[in-house]
Amino acid sequence: MKASSFDWETRLDAALGTPPSPGERRPVIGITGNFGAKGCELAEGYYTSVLRAGGVPVVIPPYGDVAMLDSLLDRLDGIVLSGGADLNPLFAGAEPVPGLHGVCPQRDEAELRLIRMAYYRQIPMLGICRGIQMLVAALGGEVYQDLGSQYKEAPLIKHDQEMPREYASHTVDIVPDSLLSRIMSGVASLPVNSFHHQAVRTVGPRFRVCAQAPDGVIEAVESTEHKSLLGVQWHPECFILRGDETMLPIFRWLTAEAANYREARDVHRRILTLDSHEDTPMHFQEGDNAALFRRRSDRVLVDLHKMAEGGLDASIMVAYLPQGERTPEAHAQATATADRLLSQIEQMVEGNAEYVGLARTPDDLYRLKREGRRAIMLGIENGYAVGHDLGLVEHFRRRGVVYMTLCHNGDNDVCDSARGNSEHGGLSNFGREVVGEMNRLGMMVDLSHASEKSFYDALEVSARPIVCSHSSARALCDHPRNLTDDQMRALARSGGVAQVTFYDGFLRLGGGASILDAVAHLRHMVDVMGVEHVGIGTDFDGDGGVPGVADASELINLTRRLLREHFSEADLRLIWSENFMRVMRQVQTP
User: What are phi and psi of 572, to 5 degrees?
Assistant: First the structure.
């Protein structure tokens, strides 16, 4: 057995050219197998290309068992969707046209499920020929069943060539500044081979066209969501099998993305990841919120599936209160609303006790991770919840609230808001008492949404470090909700932390932000404050989320980007939880 294993490793190293360094693990690339009368088959070019690019190829047979697919995807770092038979139009909600060729429903059904599951997990994927069509069909686009009878935009060139597969038959025009253009070193026109009569008709919302044939037929697509997804209509593996390395960069891109994905996933397994601000309870309703959280839901950005897929261990879910009237009756109603939301969070956790637990301390978070369960902490967004009653601070602390955001969009009895009227000139006298009581009881003071004067007053009054649970950098986006560099430096000097948030309008004025802006804000905050004072508070379900980090399932993408920015695992450990937990420990220690 040992000799056989050694021989395989020797052959693999010979195929790749250079052996791995000690401790290095090559990314594992799953390749979907064709399926027909002879069973599951795989053309040589696919696995040879993966080997040449530095990956370890494995074949994915067309089985549809969800539990088995789930287990398989735990072990894959990337996927190649290979060529083969036509897509059964019934799976795309259409009837067959006369030009439709042979289909394999078993393969279609299994691959559509595989693609969607891999997409949710953020696994890098490369679709080739049929593979590009399956990518698009699985994720919201449409496919021509037969170009010859359905394509009306222009006279067609010959897309189903009758010549050796390793030679080019036509050219494609590559969109400048696209991912494909970068992969292919900026070439504008690329000779390709072509063996298809089906093609992408519309790309849907998740892709954009990045190459077309001279007749306008779509030849390549890439993600609009900053994900590692690429589809090409031609067969790059045939060139590589012949020894022509022109197309090898496509496979090298996939293996590099897969290696980055694997590294991020491994990091998430070793560290604790905490999102310090989520407004998911805003979407809770009377009834079974445990079921809502247990299933994949389009209604919320954070559920058990998305937390698992994004590698998120813990979240602080807040009872959010919009600022309202400040009468005794309105204050009583605000308190009741906060209590109801906190109870709904507790009930949601209790109804999913097998998968998630309630945490009050950093030690609880680590215990739950060891147990293989997600963790939920309680927070309150807006000191409106305590009205003008200091005793309510203790009431909410006894309920397990770990922090309270002193205000929201509007002044309250505690302090002035960044979007308020400077009623108190910072903290009110009552607000100073509230901060002191929070210090005494071990509840963190959160200054997100506060005015600058309130911020500095709280820094002066608080005997413990403070946090900004979901704030970004004003130097990059001049919004009053964001922190100035001077505020961040003062916060760091006092031992506090600021958690970068993914609210579009706080990342880029006028909107249109993406994960690139989120990383830029985080990088700026680290540069100003030091890596020991920065964390992540997404504001998911409170309008937080931008392309690339649009929900909890995509948080692994942030780690991938930060690894590319040369943040170390030690840095990521601090950013993802330890900075925030350090403050929590200091605040909770008598």
Answer: -65, -35
- Main-chain phi, psi angles of 537, to 5 degrees: -135, 95
Question: How far, in Å, CA of 211 to CA of 216, rounded?
Answer: 9
How far is it, in rounded angstroms, from Cα 206 to Cα 127? 14
At 191-201, the pLDDT tens digits run 999 999 999 99
> What one-letter code names the amino acid at 297?
S
Structure tokens at 351: 């109804």
Q: 345: Cβ–Cβ under 8 A, 6 or more apart, which residues?
A: 281, 284, 317, 319, 376, 378
Strand 497-500 to 467-468 pairing: parallel
Residue 80's beta-bridge partner residues?
Answer: 31, 126
CA distance 2 to 6: 6
Residue written as token pair 């969070």: 345
Note the Cα 80 to chain centre separation in Å.
21
Structure tokens at 203: 């790309």
Query: To the nearest whole percent, how much of the chain has pLDDT over 90?
Result: 91
Q: Kindly report the backbone phi and psi dihedral angles of residue 95, in degrees, each rounded to the nearest multiple of 5, phi listed first.
A: -95, 150
| CA atoms of 286 and 103, how far apart (whole Å) | 47
CA–CA dist 304, 309 (Å, integer) = 9
- pTM, full prediction: 0.94
25 pLDDT band (50/70/90 cuts)?
Answer: confident
Q: How far apart are CA 515 and CA 226, in angstroms?
A: 8
Structural domains present in the chain: 2-263 (3.40.50.880), 271-588 (3.20.20.140)
